[in-house]
Amino acid sequence: MTLGHEVAASLKAVGDAVSGLAPGNRVCLHYNITCGSCPSCASGNEQFCPTGLMIGHYTDGGFAELIVIPARNALRLPENIPFEQGATLMCASATAYHALRKSHLAAGESVAIIGVGGLGMSAVQLARSFGALDVLRWTSAKKVCGLRKATARYRSTPDQVTRWQRSSGAPVAGAWTCQWRCSAVQRRCSRRSAVFHRWTAVIVGIGNEPLVLDTYHEILGGEASLIGSNDHLLSELPTVIELARRGILDTTRVVTRTIPLDAAAINAAIDGLERNDPGIRTVVVP
Questions:
Q1: How far, in Å, CA of 169 to CA of 98, rounded?
Q2: Residues 254 and 223 in one domain
Q3: Rounded to an integer, what distance in angstroms lies between the CA atom of residue 286 and that of residue 271?
Q4: Which residues of 14-30 are buried (b: 16+ CB within 10 A; e: fewer)?
Q5: Residue 26 pLDDT greater than 80, yes or no
């Protein structure tokens, strides 16, 4: 099996029964290959398809010279979006968009993005498209890959998050990417802020430690909602692509390094990701 689950490329060939696509078309690929007919697929929740396969995980992915994909998984990529950015839209950006949808973020509300990697950098920009009143990003990095100050504030401690929420006076919808930070912020804010009620925390990232919660102070007392978010949906991808085409979502801020299609270079980049190298957040292979 060949790795690579975020893919954008030109079509080499299409099947005889395929319409709307032709050889040479620029496309980006939805990475979940599903049956399309089970109850999960029929209800629009195809990430739970019992026969679903993720390219690059359970079947050959984008590091292969050629792969075969169902026609419904290939979405046209606008000419103004480079391939490396189109590939990033298919996971980092789409997963962030799905998490924000799960949070039910409404216009005029505030959002805190905790953990500003590939998903977080997309989430900061996408929150604006939801009409977020204010966007707070919380990260230990001093500089986050070109994010503009106008796009997001920089904060680093739970106390600062609490002060920001008090001053904004708005509900909080959080697309959290670090479980332990989610717990720390919620614990500190729920106990110290009288207005930090009825907020939503969406956990997107995968942590190595169990998430331990104080049931009353962190959930029941403030009628908070804790939501898990898994992957994204095929139906969400056209919106994500359109936001990128219009420049509302700029994935040049998400891609931090491009490497050649060479085994040594790929292995070195993967090793860097495992070490949490701050210079390697999102890697693209052309």
A1: 25
A2: no
A3: 19
A4: beeeeeeeeeeebbbbb
A5: yes
The pLDDT of residue 39: 94
Residue 246 has pLDDT above 90, yes or no: yes
Tell me 234's DSSP state. G
Instruction: Give the whole-number percent of the chain exceeding pLDDT 70.
Output: 69
Instruction: Specify whether 53 is located in the same domain as 118.
Output: no
Residues in contact with 87: Cβ distance below 8 Å, sequence separation at least 6, in sequence order: 6, 7, 8, 28, 62, 284
**With contact defined as beta carbons under 8 Å apart, do 77 and 83 qualify?**
yes
- What average pLDDT does this structure show over 141-165? 41
**212 vs 263: CA distance, rounded Å:** 40
Collapsed DSSP state (helix, strand, coil) of residue 33 = strand
Assigned domain for 127 exists: yes
Q: What is the pTM of this model?
A: 0.79
Strands 172-176 and 7-10: unpaired
Do residues 55 and 177 both lie within one domain?
A: no
User: Are residue 107 and residue 220 in the same domain, yes or no?
Assistant: yes
